[in-house]
């Protein structure tokens, strides 16, 4: 007997009119892709160590490029030096083969830690010659009280050259004072008004205080300047005070040479801070503020090359001219023998 008809209706699906447009094998490819997804380990989202390293490298590279761009942009607004100063500079030498940069910091009465009530022409508070070549930096500090022949003004303390003729006369005086064929190729004047903000961009710096400092009042440190011996972290204002202490009642035997050593220690502290992770994280802010603290004849790219040499290049022990006698020159100045000058220039230029 024949089977009875089913109690439900049977429907036949209508053919998809777009089925002919689908590429052959597309369904099979979809099945293979779904199969590969199922084969992955749980939690695997395609992040590999190689990709992480690549992303980190891109982030670091972008951070550096941003910092370089900010440095070059900020250098467009920095102050230049006088035409007389540029004419006094030697065109020989470069930052690859070796160049001598005269670094000056004046006691001009401006800035957060300078007493604007004091008057008189600004004198060079810091006189330093930096020899920069590719991969190395050496520094020579000249005591500001050193006796020197200032062209057209006779024999005086060397820091008077800045008051009498600015950086131009100081360049000429330093070349004649050191002798031995030394020529100054560039000059950098540190603006004490903007230096504290530059150091604060690092989040402060840590200096090594050799002797406890108990300074009487000076500039805007109305209560004096006190600092215990050892490693001490300073903000920008106190770092500038550390470099400018004139008298130390806790170490009465200190003189202008100790002051020069503190100034070199501050430069070394800035260099050390630049090479820390914190310095790298703050690099864009540091790059923006650095050129604003300077007045120089150097272009932005040249100044950037100098900063790179100072930060990453090898740095020998700082050189400070040793006097043959203290308070024995004109006006209580100190004298340095010709032999000591010759040895210092030899060490400076290698």
What does this structure look like?
By secondary structure, the protein is an alpha/beta fold. 39% of the residues lie in helices and 17% in strands. Strand 4 and strand 5 form a beta hairpin. Helix 2 runs parallel beside helix 9, helix 2 packs across helix 10 (300-312) and helix 6 runs antiparallel to helix 7 (256-274). The longest helix has 27 residues, at 49-75. It is elongated, with a radius of gyration of 33 Å.
What characteristics describe this protein?
single chain, 350 residues, alpha/beta, two-stranded antiparallel ribbon
- The count of helical stretches stands at 11
What letter string, H or E per element, gives the SSE order?
HHHEEEEEHEHEEEEHHHHEHEEH
Using the alpha-carbon principal axes, give the shape: elongated
Mean pLDDT across residues: 83
Strand fraction = 15-25%
Instruction: Assign the structural class, choosing from mainly alpha, mainly beta, alpha/beta, alpha+beta, or little secondary structure.
Output: alpha/beta
For the biggest sheet, the summary is: 7 strands, mixed
**Computed Rg:** 33 Å
Distance separating the two termini: 118 Å
Helix-residue proportion? 25-40%
Number of strands: 13
Low-pLDDT segments: 109-119
Question: What's the structural blueprint in terms of helices and strands?
Answer:
Layout: H1 26-39, H2 49-75, H3 83-88, E1 99-106, E2 124-133, E3 136-141, E4 147-150, E5 154-157, H4 160-178, E6 186-190, H5 195-201, E7 205-209, E8 213-215, E9 225-227, E10 230-234, H6 236-244, H7 256-274, H8 277-281, H9 283-289, E11 294-296, H10 300-312, E12 314-315, E13 319-320, H11 338-349
Parallel strand pairs: 1-6, 3-12, 3-13
Antiparallel strand pairs: 1-2, 2-3, 4-5, 6-11, 7-10, 8-9
Helix pairs in contact: 2-9, 2-10, 5-6, 6-7
């Amino acid at each position: 007997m024949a089977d009875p008809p089913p109690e439900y209706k049977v429907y036949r699906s209508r053919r998809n009119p777009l089925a002919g447009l689908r590429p052959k094998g597309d369904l099979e490819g979809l099945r293979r892709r779904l199969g590969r997804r199922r084969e992955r380990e749980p939690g695997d989202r395609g992040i590999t160590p190689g990709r992480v390293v690549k992303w980190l490298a891109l982030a670091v590279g972008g951070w550096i490029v941003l910092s370089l761009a900010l440095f070059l942009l900020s250098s467009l607004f920095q102050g230049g030096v006088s035409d007389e100063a540029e004419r006094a500079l030697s065109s020989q030498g470069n930052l690859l083969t070796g160049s001598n940069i005269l670094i000056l910091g004046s006691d001009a009465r401006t800035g957060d830690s300078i007493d604007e009530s004091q008057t008189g022409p600004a004198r060079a508070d810091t006189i330093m010659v930096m020899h920069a070549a590719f991969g190395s930096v050496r520094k020579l500090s000249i005591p500001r009280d050193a006796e020197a022949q200032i062209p057209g003004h006779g024999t005086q303390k060397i820091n008077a050259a800045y008051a009498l003729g600015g950086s131009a006369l100081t360049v000429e005086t330093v070349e004649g004072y050191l002798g031995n064929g030394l020529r100054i190729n560039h000059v950098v004047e540190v603006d004490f008004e903007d230096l504290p903000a530059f150091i604060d961009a690092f989040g402060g710096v840590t200096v090594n205080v050799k002797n406890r400092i108990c300074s009487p009042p000076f500039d805007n440190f109305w209560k004096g300047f006190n600092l215990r011996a050892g490693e001490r972290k300073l903000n920008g204002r106190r770092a500038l005070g550390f470099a400018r202490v004139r008298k130390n009642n806790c170490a009465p035997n200190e003189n202008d040479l100790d002051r020069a050593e503190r100034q070199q220690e501050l430069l070394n502290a800035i260099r050390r801070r630049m090479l820390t992770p914190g310095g790298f994280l703050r690099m864009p802010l540091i790059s923006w503020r650095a050129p604003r603290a300077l007045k120089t004849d150097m272009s932005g790219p040249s100044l950037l090359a100098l900063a790179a040499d100072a930060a990453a290049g090898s740095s020998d022990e700082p050189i400070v001219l040793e006097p043959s006698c203290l308070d024995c020159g004109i006006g209580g100045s100190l004298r340095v023998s010709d032999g000591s000058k010759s040895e210092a220039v030899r060490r400076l230029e290698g």
